Predict the structure.
Amino acid sequence: MLTHRPLDTYSENGFAYSGDALTAAEVALLSAATDTEFGRDSPARTVEKDGETVRAVHGCHLVNDLFARVVRHPKLLGPAVEVLGGPVYVHQFKINAKRAVHGDVWPWHQDYIFWNRRDGMREPRAVNVAVLLDAATPVNGPLLVVPGSHRVGTLDLRERDAGLGWRSNLAADLDYRIDGPLLAELARGREIVQVTGHSGAVVLFDPQLVHASGANMSPHDRRMILVTYNRTDNLPDAVASPRPEFLAGTDYRPLEPWQGDLDN
Ligand code: SIN
Ligand code: MN
């Protein structure tokens, strides 16, 4: 009998829900740890243009045992290995805050161009695994994606230089943005989709998928963990100015899933 598996649509659409969500207890643990990381004064933490609202924190798996465990969680690592077809390590880890009322936009972009041009990643043989810490709804700035757009490959975009170095790519002011006319071309015949879901949902998306998110005008946070796994046979080439470890991981050992609870 033919059965439809949740990841079956990944290669066609460039994103898919894994179908195997984290439990409410796991989300509660991760939420508490997220508060700790949002409160930690560190260069890995970025704020919105207002200068105070936390926008994102990178590299939490390097400094926090719970996040070090979550990147080996079978519900994250399992689907990552499944779609990439081989062993992986963490290239990047972040928690995007998208705070109630103050959470700002992410312009339209593809991720791989940053990892290729900034970090020397050779091929787009990586995957983003997102975990919704809060429900993502139509009104709290959910991720927006153009289904199938990953199949256009890496767009040859001109670099905008905001003069902020690697910091610009953590702000609403990305170096490699997709402008309106190009978006219109990419979205022709494809309907833009909101990646909504309940807290704990796990969503995978391709590094070349065209995506963005709007401002959060609602009174509800939309926090989301994003783990970028890269294949261990796709290690980056050396680059002239490597970004900090919290943006471009250099622990290339293949990850093994653990069994058991997140909290022990
Ligand atoms: C991103 O591209 O990493 C931003 C996604 C989001 O949090 O909306
Ligand atoms: Mn992105």
